[in-house]
Amino acid sequence: MPTAPDITHPTPGATPPVPPTALSLDERLAFVSAAMTVRLDEAAVAYEVNTAHIPIEPVHLGDVVTVPLTSTLQPPPAPYPTPVAALLERAHHRLLTGGWCAGAMADAEGARCLYGAIHIEARGDQSLAFRGLDVLMDAIRREFGDGVDSVPGFNHAWGDGRIPLRMLDQAAGLADARGL
């Protein structure tokens, strides 16, 4: 019966195994970084899967961060150079300083709705007022869809002026971007 070779002694011609060397700090950090990246990617996928069924609505910073509305607010230093954008900016400033209302073009204290502010700031130029209202409707429909029928209807649907004022500000930027 053959005997098993002695494994404690190296066989002739074979090289002895090289003992493992310690990794440098940079090598260890690279391995840990790669492992953490894999774990974070797995966690991100798990989060997306676990929260995919939850409906969300985007939050606008203007709805969260507010400043007190006082009559001491000054007009912006550089108005928009285009007439429709400047009109919408003036209407926005009028609502900031004079107040916003719903249910009427103007109330007893002088507060105005979106429609009333645009018409008063158009200073008799009905063509300018209608172009401003068209751009405002475009901005509203971009945000809220085609279910909005009119600027007064949109204005009167709100209990406070935060959203209507934000939409008026966005419309001014949209008019400026279009060169109106």
List keywords for this structure.
7 helices, single chain, mainly alpha, 2 domains
Number of domains: 2
Order of helices and strands: HHHHHHH
Largest sheet: none
Total beta-strand segments: 0
Mean of all residue-level pLDDT scores: 83
In whole angstroms, the N-to-C terminal distance is 102 Å
| Poorly predicted sequence stretches spanning 5 or more consecutive residues | none
Helix percent band: 40-55%
What is the number of helical segments per DSSP (H or I, 4+ residues)? 7
Shape: elongated
Structural class: mainly alpha
Percent strand = under 5%
Radius of gyration, CA atoms, in whole angstroms: 33 Å
Question: Can you give a write-up of this model?
Answer:
There is one protein chain. By secondary structure, this protein is mainly α. It folds into 2 domains: 36 residues; 118 residues, no CATH class. Helix content is 54%, strand content 0%. It is built from 7 helices and no strands. The chain starts with 24 loop residues before the first helix and ends with a helix. The mean pLDDT is 83.
